[in-house]
Design goal:
Elements: E1 12-15, H1 17-21, H2 33-46, H3 53-72, H4 79-90, H5 94-98, H6 100-111, H7 113-116, H8 125-134, E2 138-143, H9 150-160, E3 168-171, H10 172-175, H11 182-192, E4 199-203, H12 206-215, E5 219-223, E6 237-239, H13 245-276
Parallel strand pairs: 1-2, 1-4, 2-3, 4-5, 5-6
Helix pairs in contact: 2-6, 3-4, 4-6
Length: about 280
C-alpha cells in the first residue's frame, strides 16, 4: 500500500470579483446600460453625428451578441474592441471616420459609469483580505469582465482600499481568456509564484469558478448561492460571507491533516499485517 501525496500548505488564495468580492452578480453590470448609451450619444452628437436612440440600442445589443459568442468560447476582447463593434454596427467605417481621439473618448464614457455608482462589496471583504495577508498568504484576483473593463474595476478596488492586498490581478478583457478555461488560473498562479496545489480559489459560480479552478489543479471554496451543483464538481468548502473565509481555510487544512493521519495509520496497520504473514 503506497501513500497518496499530501496537499500542500496553502500559500496563495485567488478571488473572483463579481458575486464574491462583490455582492452584485455579473448581470448587475447591465444596469449601467442607459448611462453608457447616453454617454455614447452625447459624444457622437458633439461631433455632429446624429444617431437615434433606437439605432444606438440596436448596435449595443448586436455588440452584446458578439461578446456572448466570444465568451462562450472562453475568450475575451479589450473594451476598445467592444466599443468599436458598437460603432461598426452603426456604420462599418465610423471608427476610421471619427479618428482615434474620438474613439478614446467614446471608450471613456462607455467604461466609466460604475465609478459614479459603484457596485456593492461584501462587507467582510476587507477584514478577510487583511487576515489572510497577516498569515503571509499571497492574494490574487481572477475574474471575467462584462462590459466594465478591468482598468475601471481596479479603480473601484482602489477607492475601496482593497487594491493593494492583491499581488496579481488577472481580468479576462486584459488577458483574452475567460473562466472556466484553466489557463487563466494557471497564468495567475505562475505570476504569484506558487503551484496549483498550494493555492485555493474563492468564487461563486459552480462552472466558472469551481470547475475552472479544479481543472487548473486548485482547491476551491465556493460562495454559497442558490442553484445547481454540476455532478462531480463539489467544492472543498462553502461560505456565505467573506468574513467566514479564514475559518473555512483553517477547516480545510485540518480536514486534510486528519485525512493524512488516517492514511498514515492505515499504511502502518497494512505494513504490520504484511510482516505478520
Amino acid at each position: 500500500m503506497s501513500s497518496a501525496p499530501l496537499r500542500a500548505v496553502i500559500k496563495a488564495v485567488t478571488f473572483d470579483f463579481w458575486g464574491t468580492l462583490l455582492l452584485d452578480s455579473p448581470a448587475a453590470d447591465e444596469r449601467y446600460k442607459q448611462q453608457r448609451l447616453s454617454g455614447l450619444a452625447a459624444v457622437l452628437n458633439a461631433m455632429g453625428i446624429r444617431v437615434g436612440r433606437a439605432d444606438l440600442d440596436r448596435a449595443y445589443t448586436a455588440s452584446g451578441r458578439e461578446l456572448q459568442r466570444r465568451w462562450r468560447a472562453q475568450r475575451d476582447i479589450p473594451v476598445e474592441k467592444a466599443v468599436e463593434a458598437i460603432l461598426r454596427s452603426i456604420n462599418p467605417s465610423l471608427p476610421e471616420a471619427i479618428g482615434p481621439a474620438a474613439v478614446t473618448e467614446l471608450v471613456r464614457v462607455y467604461a466609466t459609469p460604475p465609478l459614479a455608482v459603484p457596485p456593492t462589496f461584501d462587507p467582510g471583504a476587507a477584514e478577510a483580505l487583511h487576515e489572510l495577508k497577516l498569515r503571509g498568504i499571497s492574494l490574487g484576483l481572477v475574474s471575467n469582465t462584462m462590459r466594465t473593463p478591468g482598468a475601471v474595476l481596479r479603480k473601484i478596488l482602489e477607492r475601496r482600499g482593497l487594491l493593494d492586498y492583491f499581488s496579481v490581478i488577472t481580468f479576462s478583457d486584459e488577458c483574452g481568456i475567460r473562466k472556466p478555461d484553466p489557463e487563466i488560473f494557471r497564468m495567475t498562479l505562475e505570476r504569484i509564484g506558487v503551484a496549483p496545489a498550494e493555492a485555493v480559489h474563492v468564487g461563486d459560480d459552480p462552472v466558472l469558478d469551481v470547475r475552472g479552478a479544479r481543472a487548473a489543479g486548485m482547491r476551491v471554496i465556493q460562495m454559497y448561492v442558490e442553484g445547481y451543483e454540476p455532478p462531480g464538481q463539489r467544492p472543498d468548502g462553502t461560505i456565505r460571507r467573506l468574513d467566514e473565509l479564514p475559518g473555512a481555510l483553517d477547516l480545510l487544512e485540518r480536514d486534510e491533516a486528519a485525512d493524512s493521519d488516517a492514511l498514515d495509520t492505515a499504511i502502518l496497520f497494512d505494513n504490520r499485517a504484511r510482516k505478520s504473514l
